[in-house]
């Protein structure tokens, strides 16, 4: 059974940093396309970042330069380092994975990030 | 990258068929057969129900089907059931600055 488990969310002040992690089991992150997708309260889904199986990473315009996605193949885990956080980054952050960018078969349960003073 | 355009809500009676549209551009929906649809229950993670425009993952009901014409993709739910009353999002590969984009989301109401 495939499982993606996110961790690292919480309450953080504007301008602060947070690191999210997504641990996979029954699924090899290095062989798949891994994404972070967020959903602000009451809003729709927004693609945040993706790492291709080959290692290239891409970001949404809204987070480029502030967020960094990485992959630890030895721990079968992906991370999202979030710096210079803003109130508008408040959302549930989902980790997802699949055979392509457009086909994200597996999703974690989500972790809530709240940016507020 | 602007979100793909979906109707905010679509409704139908039990047993009827409904269609949700997803409009993009030639840089995303119209340019590639890489459109997916996700179903999301309140407070839960999205679930993939259609990929590559028309394909259903194993275990997904055949009441869900997908199609595409030009820059608009569509999700059809046939034999509408009360359990279908949740949110649906389309998604597409795109050649713009971000390789993936979601639709604005559609809430389905079963009358």
The chain pair forming the largest interface, with residue counts per chain, is:
A-B, 25 and 27 residues
Low-confidence stretches of chain B: none
Shape of chain B: globular
The tally of beta strands of chain B, per DSSP, is: 9
Compact overview of the structure:
With 117 residues, chain A is mainly beta. Chain A has no helices and eleven strands.
SSE arrangement:
The complex is a heterodimer of chains A (117) and B (111).
Chain A: E1 3-7, E2 10-12, E3 18-25, E4 33-39, E5 45-51, E6 57-59, E7 67-72, E8 77-82, E9 91-98, E10 106-107, E11 111-115
Parallel strand pairs in A: 2-11
Antiparallel strand pairs in A: 1-3, 3-8, 4-5, 4-9, 5-6, 7-8, 9-10, 9-11
Chain B: E1 9-12, E2 18-23, E3 35-40, E4 47-50, E5 64-69, E6 72-77, E7 87-93, E8 100-102, E9 106-110
Parallel strand pairs in B: 1-9
Antiparallel strand pairs in B: 2-6, 3-4, 3-7, 5-6, 7-8, 7-9
Question: Could you please describe the fold and organization of this structure?
Answer:
The complex is a heterodimer of chains A (117) and B (111). By secondary structure, chain A is mainly beta. Chain A has strands spanning 3-7, 10-12, 18-25, 33-39, 45-51, 57-59, 67-72, 77-82, 91-98, 106-107, 111-115. Chain A is globular. The termini of chain A are far apart. The relative contact order of chain A is 0.32. Chain B has strands spanning 9-12, 18-23, 35-40, 47-50, 64-69, 72-77, 87-93, 100-102, 106-110. Chain B starts with 8 loop residues before the first strand and ends with a strand. The model of chain B has no long low-confidence stretch (mean pLDDT 95). Chain B is mainly β and 111 residues long. In chain B, strand 7 (87-93) and strand 8 (100-102) form a beta hairpin.
